[in-house]
Amino acid sequence: MARAATTQRKIINTAFAWMVGLLIFFPIMWTILTSFKTEATAIADPPVWFFFDWTLDNYRVVQERSDYSRFLWNSIIIAGGSTFLGMLIAIPAAWSMAFVPSKRTKDILLWMLSTKMLPAVGVLYPIYLIFIKFGLLDTRIGLTIVLMFINLPIMVWMLYTYFKEIPGEILEAARMDGAGLREEILYVLTPMAIPGIASTVLLNVILAWNEAFWTLNLTAAKAAPLTAFIASYSSPEGLFYAKLSAASTMAIAPILILGWFSQKQLVRGLTFGAVK
Amino acid sequence: MATKASRTAARLMLAPAVILLLGWMMVPLTMTVIFSFKRYLPMRGGDLGWVGFENYVRFVNSSAFWPAVQSTLMIVGGVLLITVVLGVLLAILLDQPMWGQGIVRILVIAPFFVMPTVSALVWKNMFMDPVNGLFAHLWRFFGATPVSWLSEASMPSIILIVSWQWLPFATLILLTAIQSLDSEQLEAAEMDGASPLSRFIYITLPHLARAITIVVLIQTIFLLAIFAEIFVTTQGAFGTRTLTYLIFQRVLESQNVGLGSAGGVYAIILANILALFLMRIVGKNLDR
Amino acid sequence: MGRIVLDQVTKSFGDVTVIPPLDLTIEDGEFAVFVGPSGCGKSTLLRLIAGLEDVTSGAIRIDGQDATDIVPAKRGLAMVFQSYALYPHMSVRKNIAFPLRMAGMDRAEQDRRVDLAASVLNLTDYLERRPGQLSGGQRQRVAIGRAIVREPAAFLFDEPLSNLDAALRMGMRLEISELHKRLETTMIYVTHDQVEAMTMADKIVVLRAGHIEQVGSPLDLYRAPRNLFVAGFIGSPKMNLIAGAEAAKHDAHTIGVRPEHITVSATDGEWSGVVAVSEHLGSDTFFHVHDTGLADTITVRADGEVGFRHGDRIHMTPRADVIHRFDEQGLRIA
């Protein structure tokens, strides 16, 4: 809007928007607050808001009793590994389709998208069988591969839309300047595409971190990431709100931070470039 | 447009992605289709031979099928309605000039980054628990009897949880779309004498139509597949067993792979019909 | 050295033939300009020479060597792109040095050549900047700098001035011409602007739909356009083309008279009409004349300030020695 809004309207907007924003954010805030309470305070009625004895006990207990860091480590390996593997495959593919399009490029892109839409539950048993056969059940490598596959179409698509924005003339200039394919990708394309590559990595780490179908169904004790660890709290024993909150806070904190960085790119990634 | 050499290189670079994805798609898919025509009970005798379309018929005729379709439709429809309507309103609100816009945006988007198991458990225990949940406290404060949300009002509860997770997605995409609206168009309409409401109806809403369609299609595909939210809250009880969950139970819990696979094929066909619409829109975008 | 020979070169995209069989020789040290309306295949032709597109058939020889199947990098040609195609993440220095780096030249020699090119192009003060911080004209110079450091056999320019404003365009035109005089290297320059072609070229190649309509020096083309297309394309304002009875008087199907070859008078002349628009530029005056009975509009150029206005009756006389005559096929009658 070129026109300055009246101050009065701005105040109303601000108040209303903050109210709605805080309401939506409330469950997260409540979880974080609860994680610093004792179990008794956590269920107090009326609820206690800010004035309680802040404690870090819950975090300590969660780590000691359930070896939280092991699940965290699994999450990191699986999310990071699947993204890394996926990028190795997706970058050349996206390069190829963005800069040397053929008549089939569009079909291939749409077909890749369609594999993403395959309902996971439809292929649950076959994957389960394959995992047993190759000894992949409850292993980090198995989960890494599966998550790599389910996110590969998004990676290719996101990179494709970013690469498309790089003018082809620049790559041709590099070619004229004597750069081979390797130099072209290494010195020209990659540096120019770094923002796009970074956001693709970010979004895929987030998606892999939060994936909760395969991680729940293909892991048991050994390779379980945080999604599965948290799910184990669904059959509670005794007072556990504060500990649940502490575990939850630790599980979502890293991704909340990453997510805030990637909010702009999120739109492009999740709509396959249809909305920018 | 390029030379032969670069085309060859390009094919080689595309090949791994295509071959791997093809394998990832075709192998399990073929297995599912094969299982769906068999009587296959891993715990009770294994592969018991071909049965034709029996599994398909049994899956549809089982007493659990229609309720599952119904609850799937209710969850998908309910969440879509809530997220799209609130999403449009929120997007318009966030597009207004205000102080701390960036922070409000972050607050609104945050739920999307919460892993499904966490959000389901937090809602289930800390809000919806009939004894210690915040809602129970609230109800008692007003002198009402606390509701046992996930058993007495299981469907609205699940819809609430899932809507909370997906509202940020809808808002973010619609906000992006609103911000791409040329403000000169609105100013032109204002010069032409259009009121704020008619500006919204005749300019903003048509501009958002495409984004709304995309939100609806993408969310539908993801919502049809929601799993963790039900897995950690009701385990499919109290009328919240969706098609996805029903298939999961047939395959892994009752180990009737043939029957589950037939259900899987139904789910795949359903998803593909939706995907077709989505891809048509996305595909049009590619041509620009 | 940079003699470039195209021998029966063709190019098709699928079923669409963009360049039908075409022969062309560009001599060493020549400034050749490919000119034609958009879509005439001039850029494609340049890209074929560069090696950015494969020829469908035929051969391209550079200095007698068959370069048809050689990759762009090995042809020894440098190209300046329409968008300049600078690497946005590299400083000006790194941009200019990039081809040298790709050639594996040692750092000292790279720096020497970059500094030399920068001083020639007035870029010395900008070497550490990024392309994004430069003006259009400076970016253009960086692109040229990147081309000259390689000491290529020939320079290829793809509409390099089309993104600059009018004043800058004139300046860069002069700079490129000067550069050519100094380097004496072959240059091939693609443009749709006939003024650029006329002012810069040693040899103009007029293209239409992939065909060469005429090849010659600017003045050859001006004095003796081979057909109606070239006649209409070269020269500004356009040549007046008159068909019918007036042309028949000269034993032609169509005659062409350039605006600058018509004298005007208030009282008498061979033709007459009414001034629709008069454009007074000070140094010249242009009249667009209607109701002549010859063509819709006759354009006339007069020296200096001549005082006809809208609605005035004007009399015109073509110079008999420079009337161009064309036959039914639009070809020049000698």
Q: How big a fraction of the residues of chain A is strand?
A: under 5%
Please summarize the sheet with the most strands of chain A.
none
Low-confidence stretches of chain C: none
Helices of chain C, by number, come to 9
What is the N-to-C succession of helices and strands of chain A? HHHHHHHHHHHHH
Assigned CATH superfamily of the largest domain in chain A: MetI-like
Spans where pLDDT lies below 50 across 5 or more residues of chain A = none
* Assembly of the depicted chains: heterotrimer
Name of the CATH first level of the largest domain in chain C: Alpha Beta
Architecture of the largest domain in chain A in CATH?
Orthogonal Bundle
Structural class based on helices, strands and sheet pairing of chain A? mainly alpha
Plain-language structure description:
- The complex is a heterotrimer of chains A (276), B (288) and C (334).
- Chain A is an all-alpha fold.
- Chain A contains 13 helices and no strands.
- Chain A has helices at residues 7-34, 39-42, 57-66, 68-99, 105-116, 124-133, 140-164, 168-176, 181-210, 214-217, 226-231, 241-261, 263-270.
- In chain A, helix 1 packs across helix 12, helix 5 packs antiparallel against helix 7 and helix 9 packs antiparallel against helix 12 (241-261).
- By secondary structure, chain B is mostly helical.
- Chain B has a single domain (64-287), classed as MetI-like fold.
- In chain B, helix 8 packs across helix 10 (196-224).
- Chain C has 2 domains: 4-231, Rossmann fold (3-Layer(aba) Sandwich), CATH 3.40.50.300; 240-326, Nucleic acid-binding proteins (OB fold (Dihydrolipoamide Acetyltransferase, E2P)).
- Chain C has 9 helices and 18 strands.
- In chain C, helix 2 runs parallel beside helix 4.
- Chain C is globular, with a radius of gyration of 23 Å.
- The chains are: A mainly alpha (276), B mainly alpha (288), C alpha+beta (334).
